[in-house]
Specification:
The protein is of the alpha+beta class and 267 residues long. The chain is built from four helices and 17 strands. A hairpin with a 2-residue loop joins strand 3 and strand 4.
């Protein structure tokens, strides 16, 4: 993790729509929707509201009535990886999907309408990492940030950063800021001079059971307390807590194995 932004909305205020390319939503597809709601509700204080249901049962997580993320239920016969998927804002999901394909990525779902909420597509970059595209209508996306329980950063873990960063730059218009280091392969993606996501090249250290994938960081007040709570709720700690310039970070997984990270910002 490098150069994570302080927030996408001051003092937790809802953003006035998300600029194209901004991570604007995080969604998780699981087999046990009710038990997953219980886990994240207890961990982050989320409440849930149903819909839209275009791809099956789906709920939106809320903090103080404001939308934060989404959780859906996979059909019983679908044995897909259980993973958090970041969605990037687009003014035209169909055009973005065409650009994804022309740059060597694939589109696996859509573009399709999600009732009156907006239009979506789910694709993968040339390395195979899955991400979403969201064209907002009634639903703008994540409506609160910089508070415990909200998405704080998105980071792509992949083999090497340069090629895949170029893909995202072409599709979403990012500027790149590489970390200059002999043994650390990292590129921060910027929009309008503001860091919005990171690409971390891990080479052969990338977990073979997962391959390239996006990781969503969720903000917490205290990492140690959150970890105790997470383990008690049936989650798993994947790596030791580490200190970074952006705060204390730890990689974890929920009871179905979806990986994410917890971030405690510096005081």
């Amino acid at each position: 993790m490098s150069d994570a932004p302080a927030s996408t909305g001051p003092n937790g205020a809802p953003p006035a729509g998300h600029a194209p390319g901004t991570p604007c939503w995080a969604s998780l597809m699981v087999h046990g929707l009710a038990t997953t709601e219980e886990f994240y509700g207890a961990l982050f204080g989320w409440e849930f509201r149903p819909g839209p249901q275009q791809l099956g049962p789906y709920v939106r997580a809320l903090l103080d009535g404001r939308e934060v993320a989404g959780i859906g239920q996979l059909p019983p016969d679908r044995h897909l990886p259980i993973a958090w998927t970041p969605y990037f804002a687009s003014r035209d999901a169909d055009l973005t999907a065409e650009t994804v394909r022309s740059c060597g990525g694939t589109i696996g779902v859509g573009p399709l309408d999600a009732a009156d909420a907006g239009r979506l597509a789910i694709g993968s970059d040339p390395s195979g990492a899955v991400f979403g595209v969201w064209q907002a209508a009634a639903h703008l996306g994540t409506a609160v940030s910089d508070l415990p329980g909200t998405p704080a950063w998105n980071e792509l873990l992949t083999f090497e950063s340069a090629t895949v960063a170029k893909f995202y730059r072409t599709v979403f218009g990012y500027e790149e800021e590489p970390v200059v280091s002999a043994d650390f392969d990292y590129v921060t993606l910027h929009l309008g001079g503001r860091p919005v996501a990171g690409v971390h090249g891990l080479g052969q250290s990338l977990p073979r059971d997962r391959g390239p994938h996006w990781v969503t960081y969720f903000q917490v007040d205290d990492v140690a307390d959150a970890l105790d709570h997470l383990v008690h709720l049936g989650g798993t700690v994947l790596q030791p807590v580490r200190d970074t310039p952006q705060g204390r970070v730890v990689a974890v997984a929920d009871p179905e194995g979806a990986r994410f990270a917890l971030l405690q910002r510096p005081d």
